[in-house]
Amino acid sequence: MSSNADRGQKIVENILKSPGNNNCVDCGALDCLWASTTLGCFVCIRCSGFHRNLGVHISRIKSVQLDRWTDSDCLNLERYGNIKVANMYAINKPDIYQHPTKDSPKMLIEHWIRAKYEWREFHAETTQVPVYLKGVKSGTLLKKGKERGCWLPRHFMLDRLNNTISYYDKASTAGQKLLGQVNLKECYVLLTDENIVTKPNCLHILYPKGRLMRSIYVCANSVREIIEWYYAIRSFQTQLGYARNCVSTVFESYLFKTPAEGKGAWRRRWCILVADRILYYKNIMDPFPKGEVKLSKDDKCEKLHNLPKYVKNGPDYTFTLSTKNRTYFWGVQSEETCTQWIKCIDAVQSEMCE
Known about the structure:
Blueprint: H1 3-16, E1 34-36, E2 41-43, H2 45-54, E3 61-63, H3 75-79, H4 82-89, H5 106-118, E4 138-144, E5 151-159, E6 164-168, E7 178-183, E8 188-191, E9 202-209, E10 212-219, H6 223-239, E11 250-257, E12 267-274, E13 277-281, E14 291-294, E15 300-304, E16 317-322, E17 327-332, H7 335-353
Antiparallel strand pairs: 1-2, 1-3, 4-5, 4-10, 5-6, 6-7, 8-9, 9-10, 11-12, 11-17, 12-13, 13-14, 15-16, 16-17
Helix pairs in contact: 2-5
């Protein structure tokens, strides 16, 4: 390695030690060993891939440890750094727009990075708030059918007159037929995990129908389109005073569950924790759950080390949720997932106490 490269390597390693630079400028993850020489910031390995997709004219990515560094490579890193870049590119981010974390869905981080650096929606010099962040949106999405499961094009719009999400059989107003409406006061909108749901760019809309929660799944042709729908709905709900529907605590995975009071065989269920309830389904993307557990701040959730004698042997890791009326037994195959469920349920209960 040449003396210039040695010097460049030492410079970038010293810059990395400056306050704020060891946390990814985009998701906050620790140990940022990748840097954008054009933007002048440090990112984690996951976000570095999204930066590469922007093109080198926007963000040129280099490895702190594996690539050779010249003095010119370090200029923007010395000039800016993560704190200045965050203040420059995200200073006008509306409160409704979530700052992603290292655990956020892939499409949320991808949109965040493109919105910041490519579309410059939150830049210090940007004065116009994007229309979708004003709660205005309409367009065609593919909707999963309730009975046959086919994905059919439907025209969706945020209906400001009726405060609903309305969807029609076609975009043209001539002969247009209203197929359904979802009350914004009662619905939740969730981003789906692309590692779980086979359809990319998918949104999960939950709303009460009768005594159960109805699920609608819709998908778009691009990450940008579906994320704009996600934030348009959340923004509209906030304007209407339904900010509590913009839930922050959501967790989902397969769990094993026993019938009442642990008496009977364990059954595998797809479970979603959203707002103040756990919904459990026979299959992912079913329109209706098999049932739900409504949570309260007085419920007790704890990990089990030994199952009671009357409960059949089940998964390796189990926990109980004791409500006013019943004790639920849940099982998983990994200790990490078990811990995550308990942690998320505790978080929901903490929000109830605030």
